[in-house]
Amino acid sequence: MDFVALQKGNGIATLTLARGRVNALNGTVVDQLRTQLKNVEMDREIGAVILTGSGKFFSFGFDIPAFLALTKEEFAEYLVNFTDLYTYLFLFPKPVIAAINGHAMAGGCMLALACDHRVMAIGKAKISLNEIGFGSSVFAGSTEMLRFWVGNAKATEILYTGAMYQAEQAKDLGLVHEASTEQNFTAAVEKAASALQEKASPAFASIKSLLRKSVAEEMRRREAGSIKEFVEIWYSEETWANLQKIKIY
């Protein structure tokens, strides 16, 4: 089954997460998103990418109920795959716009942070790295991407509180670049994509690499250790009890 839909038009590729009601992430979604990104990267007719979600969610994040059936080794393997994906997206040579149409939680927020520009719909949608709320940690890579955008002080506030932010609040923090009304959302996303698409491709890719390569190197240097720690916390008695209370369908 396809959980990542691809549409092309006017030199822009739109990738839409489409898995169930909340676009929860699992290994298949991660693999399909990577495959679509690699295809788009090689497509010379595509100058920019829009990443969005179907329905009322950008992405809930991890499919937690399904992951409860995994062994530590299986879950760790998924985490390596997921963090490798967002690092690839963070360094993607073409501009990527996150069209945050609905809730972007935890892993969904991490994917958005890997993009170049984030437009979020004003309304009920919230964005959050809320892991601490259910006793989980985050990853070295997600922490570095967050700091890249908002700085140390705001990153500390966001991660320590696990707060859920509406579009205007997220813009004030630097989590998103634009807060758009639902009526203007599509136009705002397309405008952002077109503006970046018009930049000279080699120059954009070079500048993006110069800005992000050292950050990505630090992400990779610390990622394996952070995954190991994440798994130990995830399977701890207190966190495990909290995870079993989470319902997403």
Globular, elongated, flat, extended or rod-shaped: what is the shape?
globular
Q: Percent helix among the residues? A: 40-55%
- The figure for the number of domains is 1
| Gap from first CA to last CA | 18 Å
Mean pLDDT over the residues = 97
Task: State the helix count.
Answer: 9
**Roughly how many Å is the radius of gyration?**
17 Å
What this model shows, in words?
The protein is α/β, with parallel strands linked by helices and about 250 residues long. It has nine helices and nine strands. It has one domain (about 5-185): Alpha-Beta Complex (2-enoyl-CoA Hydratase, Chain A, domain 1). A six-stranded mixed beta sheet has the order 1-2-3-5-7-9, with helices on both faces. A three-stranded parallel beta sheet has the order 4-6-8. Strand 1 and strand 2 form a beta hairpin. Helix 1 packs parallel to helix 3, helix 3 runs antiparallel to helix 8 (about 200-235) and helix 5 (about 140-160) packs across helix 8. The longest helix is centred in the C-terminal third of the chain and has 34 residues, at about 200-235.
